[in-house]
């Protein structure tokens, strides 16, 4: 008889700016069925999830509710248990991307990417709210659509005519947070150099390898990964930093700069696993296996269940982050029909 399969399985982390909805549960149920099936076949599975706690949308939701982002996330997190228990979802651990394990792991991964020559900095011009004292994400800028002239449209696209544009193209832009007229200001941003030939070559290989992603997903990825006949498109560098005030993880050696939420969110899978294994080590004493030892096992399969709206993050950014920081890469990303 062959040795039992060793599986580290995750579902997409729910963003902690709102309560659970049926889309979350659908994905968990699909993943849970698969996990239970593997366990019945003798596999050793660690099935984990966490709250995705950082980012501008949470800061603003907390601000509206008159509480700190930490308190806001804690309240959302406390409301999850009845749903998970009610649907008999068999997660082994539930953690948070704001936990100390995640701060440490995200900063370690960043340092390793930087040591590998894959981090660059560049000045970026962005709208700034002088009343709130902060740079504004596209969704927090509104104004008149440059195409159809509808009022009160978002900074990235028009909900009336469907036009897509840059926030700087809006007519009479204003901050959705304060109503103030935003000013263009520049700031240094940090980038993960996905356009590096090493990343491009690696991702073409990883995404095309059998079993890593479904064939439909592979087709979609080709649109992002390959240049067209005119040599346009292909992978660009990924902006991974945001300026203070931002609820997130500080970038090492860069005061006032934080990781963009999508840099540290998938690291939350590893943080939740580490938290689980550390707790077991305490319970079991010398019989527990450490996180480092567990991840070093070449037979361990790392499987992510994700929604189709987060394919870019999981099939391009995440495998590249792991591989080029010298870590175990995912064995498979399975796309469910649901969204995050
Ligand atoms: Zn329009």
Strand content: 15-25%
What CATH architecture of the largest domain would you give? 3-Layer(aba) Sandwich
Q: CATH superfamily membership of the largest domain, which one?
A: HUPs
Strand order of the largest sheet: 3-2-1-13-14
What is the CATH fold-level name of the largest domain? Rossmann fold
Biggest beta sheet attributes: 5 strands, parallel
Number of strands: 14
Write a short abstract of this structure.
By secondary structure, the chain is of the alpha/beta class.
What can you see in these coordinates?
With 340 residues, the chain is α/β, with parallel strands linked by helices. The protein folds into two domains: 6-105 and 261-336, HUPs (Rossmann fold, 3-Layer(aba) Sandwich); 123-188, Beta Complex (Methionyl-trna Synthetase, domain 2), CATH 2.170.220.10. 37% of the residues lie in helices and 21% in strands. The chain has eleven helices and 14 strands. The protein has helices at residues 22-40, 56-65, 69-78, 81-86, 100-115, 197-208, 215-225, 261-264, 267-284, 291-295, 311-324, and strands at residues 6-10, 44-51, 93-96, 119-129, 134-135, 141-144, 153-154, 171-175, 183-192, 238-239, 241-243, 257-259, 300-307, 332-336. Strands 3-2-1-13-14 form a five-stranded parallel β-sheet, sandwiched between helices. Strand 4 and strand 5 form a beta hairpin. Helix 2 crosses helix 3 and helix 5 (100-115) packs across helix 9 (267-284). The radius of gyration is 21 Å and the shape is globular. The two termini are 39 Å apart. The mean pLDDT is 93. The structure holds zinc ion. Zinc ion (ZN) is lined by residues 145, 147-148, 150, 158, 160-161, 163.
């Amino acid at each position: 008889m062959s040795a039992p399969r060793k599986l580290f399985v995750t579902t997409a982390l729910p963003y902690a700016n709102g309560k659970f909805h049926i889309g979350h549960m659908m994905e968990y149920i699909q993943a849970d069925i698969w996990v239970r099936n593997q366990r019945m076949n003798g596999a050793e599975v660690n099935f984990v999830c966490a709250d995705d706690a950082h980012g501008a949308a949470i800061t603003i939701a907390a601000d509206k509710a008159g509480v700190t982002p930490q308190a806001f996330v804690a309240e959302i997190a406390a409301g999850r248990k009845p749903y998970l228990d009610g649907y008999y979802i068999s997660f082994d651990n539930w953690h948070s991307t704001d936990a100390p394990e995640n701060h440490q792991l995200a900063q370690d991964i960043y340092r390793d990417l930087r040591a590998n020559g894959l981090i660059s900095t560049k000045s970026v011009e962005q709208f700034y709210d002088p009343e709130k004292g902060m740079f504004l994400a596209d969704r927090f800028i509104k104004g008149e659509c440059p195409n159809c002239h509808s009022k009160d449209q978002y900074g990235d696209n028009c909900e009336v005519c469907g036009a897509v544009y840059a926030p700087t193209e809006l007519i009479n832009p204003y901050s959705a947070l304060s109503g103030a007229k935003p000013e263009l200001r520049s700031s240094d941003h940090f980038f993960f150099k996905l356009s590096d030939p090493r990343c491009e070559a690696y991702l073409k290989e990883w995404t095309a390898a059998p079993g890593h992603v479904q064939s439909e997903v592979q087709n979609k990825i080709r649109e992002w990964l390959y240049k067209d006949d005119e040599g346009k498109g292909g992978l660009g560098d990924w902006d991974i930093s945001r300026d203070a005030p931002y609820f997130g993880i500080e970038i090492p050696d860069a005061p006032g700069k934080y990781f963009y939420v999508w840099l540290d969110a998938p690291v939350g899978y590893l943080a939740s696993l580490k938290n689980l294994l550390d707790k077991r080590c305490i319970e079991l004493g010398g019989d527990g296996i450490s996180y480092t030892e567990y991840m070093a096992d070449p037979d361990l399969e790392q499987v992510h269940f994700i929604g189709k709206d987060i394919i870019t993050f999981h099939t391009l950014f995440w495998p590249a982050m792991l591989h080029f920081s010298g870590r175990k890469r995912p064995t498979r990303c399975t796309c469910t029909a649901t969204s995050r």
